[in-house]
Write a structure and sequence with these properties.
heterodimer; A: alpha/beta; Rossmann fold; 2 domains; 7-stranded mixed sheet; 6-stranded mixed sheet; 12 helices; globular; B: alpha/beta; 8-stranded mixed sheet; 11 helices; binds thiamine diphosphate
């Protein structure tokens, strides 16, 4: 097997993956920094390299609506958006998961207006985190490519049937060119097979979708999604095993870097995990026992894995790239604190909000945060979230 | 356009895609219209419905009145959902995984004139092969009779009550057909549930197009228009006979009045039959009545003018 390597940006890598996945329908609307994905797919269409339908819709609301309709026919469906686009889709995100459509959507995480910023933070996805979609964050371009292929496999499992978002950081990943190892077309096709949707829009066996439910049965519909999320949690590792067989790559629910013997950990998501790892590596050379946990699967939340990695640590920093205004802590910090509390585990924790609106997060920044963890007595960690680097 | 016209009732199928036992109101015009449309459509049709009366009243889980594949996603996106179904089936057929089927989307006047106009416009412009039916009961009925862009001038609704200084709705009924026709789609028509043959043949024509088609269907609502449920068809007929709702079609840009009304009945007959308009006959609303009448006349002459203007095309 010849391994093909290409220099691709995150957006381009995603478009390549979509082309290989035998996708039947792409409906999308352009928004910086996701545009390259739709442009690249349009190019594939123009050159006869993509034989699905590409529908350049008139809004993101329609993009996702078109995807839901398409998915219900049993077709394989993809879309991509960012920021305002995701916010505009919000209503339909719930319909997509409620109707159990295994759509895969790339989200190029970008700040939410106002003020207008085209740059990276996670406010878009976090604003819709309870929408019932599986949510995966990636660290680099290779991972972005791999996770698209992986996600179709996970989403389409009969015990899952949930839509998936693959989140990649605006510009840091969408526009950053890296060397990407592509999997052969035929191998991807065989890995995925065809979606087998039992209930679909088919005149030979007609069903009604999107019914009205009363208080005495609506709850049960929602509960089935809870069960599906639990199944997705289990299925995740199985699909990773299968995926590693065709790619030689495995990422895990958590990316763990020097965590085993570390005293201090940083929990972080997306591309900054790479920065944090680099800082940790430099600090390890100085004999400092720090490690990094990259939270790759955010929904369903990897509770068990988080507890395991927390065991015996002296202190942790939880890094959020979004704000939950007025809340005790931002999303990731709230989740980790809640997991600890429920399991009688109390690792001293500092919560940070960093990098909003594309503010760079440097190796020095990661180092500063580790140093704060190490210098302070863990019993004196501040209870309130620190807005790291903000000019007050 | 090549299609098989319907001439007598005996040509209609005996099996219907909308089963009895649904929860639409007695005397509901929408139900009558949907049944007529589905009788004219091929059996293997896939139906999309926007949020509204038709949706909530036909699919109260665990029941469904639909014998054909049916889907509802939200209020403003029926045209987008239909786009997705059409495009996906096209891809599946091309790849040898499936087969194309006719797609009909139903939206109320709220779901079409107002909140859904963007999705509709996008779908028409992109040229999907599907039929969009706006069932127009001239207000948001499902939420309790609020005004829409399709509510006529001077009408009482719960958000446009008449009072000391207002005669009811103070804005004009939007020219929806004009907007749709401006997209240059192959076929658009108006229809009334009182003229079943006219409606059914329009449906056949619409579904024979290789592209988007549109039907604007007037569906009187006894709850919102305030009349006896036994009178639905009579009111729909009066709407045509008084020239309130002209029946016409636009085939590749050419207008044609399909049910000419050479000697219209006085518009007052239509007005006085309905509680939502009857106040216009009171002396204090004389100005509003004049405006209402003028708008009805203007719209009919507009359709006549378009018919003349496009007759040589
Ligand atoms: C985004 C959104 N806004 C508002 C509503 C509430 N809503 C449901 S149905 C409806 C009115 C529907 O009116 P119309 O389209 O005329 O159909 P009808 O009820 O007359 O059948 C409204 C406002 C909704 N479901 N979704």
């Amino acid at each position: 097997m010849m391994v093909q390597k290409l220099a691709l940006s995150g957006d381009e890598a995603i478009a390549y993956a979509v082309k290989q996945c035998d996708v039947d329908l792409v409906a999308a609307y352009p928004i910086t920094p996701q545009t390259i994905i739709v442009e690249k797919i349009s190019e594939f269409v123009a050159n006869g390299e993509f034989d699905g339908e590409f529908i350049p819709v008139e809004s993101e609301h329609s993009a996702l609506s078109t995807c839901v309709g398409g998915s219900l026919t049993g077709a394989r469906v993809f879309t991509a958006t960012a920021s305002q686009g995701l916010a505009l889709m919000h209503e339909i995100l719930y319909a997509a998961s409620g109707l159990r459509t295994p759509i895969v959507m790339a989200i190029v995480n970008r700040a939410l207006n106002s003020p207008l910023s085209i740059h990276n933070d996670h406010a878009d996805m976090m604003g819709s985190r309870d929408c019932g979609w599986i949510q995966i964050y990636v660290e680099n371009v290779q991972e972005a490519y791999d996770r698209i292929i992986f996600s179709f496999k996970l989403a389409e499992r009969e015990d899952v049937l949930l839509p998936v978002t693959v989140n990649l950081d605006a510009f840091f990943l969408s526009h950053n060119v890296e060397s990407v190892e592509l999997i052969e077309d035929g191998v991807v096709k065989k890995f995925l097979g065809r979606p087998k949707r039992k209930y679909r829009l088919d005149p030979d066996e007609p069903y009604s979708f999107g019914a009205m439910a009363y208080p005495w049965n609506c709850f049960e519909f929602k509960y089935q999604q809870v069960v599906a999320m639990r199944n997705a949690y289990k299925a995740f590792d199985e699909v990773e095993d299968e995926f590693s067989k065709i790619s030689g790559r495995k990422y895990g629910k958590l990316g763990k870097y020097w965590t085993d013997d570390a005293d201090y950990l940083m929990f972080i998501m997306g591309s900054s995990a790479g920065t944090a790892k680099y800082a940790a590596r430099l600090m390890r050379q100085e004999g400092l026992k720090v490690g990094v946990v990259s939270v790759k699967l955010y929904r369903p939340f990897p509770e068990k894995e988080i507890l395991e990695v927390l065991e015996g640590k002296k202190g942790i920093a939880v890094m959020d790239r979004s704000i939950s205004f007025g809340a005790p802590t931002p999303p990731l910090a709230s989740d980790i604190r809640s997991v600890m509390f429920a399991n009688d585990m109390k690792v001293p924790m500092m919560s940070f909000v960093y990098g909003m609106g594309g503010r760079d997060f440097s190796v020095q920044d990661a180092r500063n945060i580790f140093e704060m963890l190490m210098k302070k007595d863990p019993s004196e960690y501040p209870k309130e979230t620190i807005y790291y680097g903000v000019k007050a | 356009m090549s299609y098989k016209p319907i001439r007598t009732l005996f040509e209609l199928p005996t099996e219907e895609n909308l089963a009895p036992g649904h929860r639409m109101c007695s005397g509901c015009g929408v139900t009558v219209g949907v049944r007529q449309i589905l009788l004219a459509a091929p059996k293997d049709v896939i139906v999309v419905t926007a949020t509204g009366c038709l949706e909530v009243s036909t699919v109260a889980y665990p029941y469904t009145a639909w014998r054909c594949p049916w889907v509802h996603v939200a209020f403003e996106n029926a045209a987008a959902v239909a786009s997705g179904i059409e495009a996906a089936l096209k891809a599946l057929e091309r790849k040898g995984y499936g087969k194309r089927h006719p797609v009909i989307a139903f939206g109320g006047d709220g779901g079409t004139y107002d909140i859904g106009i963007q999705a509709l416009s996008g779908a028409l412009e992109r040229g999907h092969r599907f039929l969009y039916v706006c069932y127009d009961n001239e207000a948001y009925m499902n939420t309790g009779i609020q005004r829409s862009g399709g509510t006529p001038y001077g009408t009482w609704t719960t958000t446009t009550p008449f009072g000391k200084v207002r005669p009811g709705k103070t804005e004009v009924k939007k020219n929806l057909m004009g907007i749709v026709v401006a997209h240059g789609i192959p076929y658009a028509a108006t229809a009334s549930i009182s003229h079943w043959k006219d409606l059914m043949n329009k449906v056949r024509k619409a579904l024979s197009c290789d592209g988007p088609s549109f039907i604007h269907l007037l569906t009187p609502c006894n709850r919102g228009w305030r009349f006896d449920p036994a009178q639905t068809i009579r009111i729909a007929k009066l709407a045509v006979e008084t020239r309130y709702f002209p029946l016409y079609e636009v085939e590749n840009g050419v207008y044609r009045i399909t049910v000419p009304v050479p000697r219209p009945k006085p518009i007052e007959e239509f007005i006085k039959a309905q509680g939502r308009l009857r106040h216009l006959l009171r002396p204090e609303y004389a100005d509003a009545l004049a405006t209402f009448k003028k708008q009805v006349e203007d719209y009919y002459s507009y359709v006549e003018m378009m018919t003349k203007a496009t007759s040589s095309k």
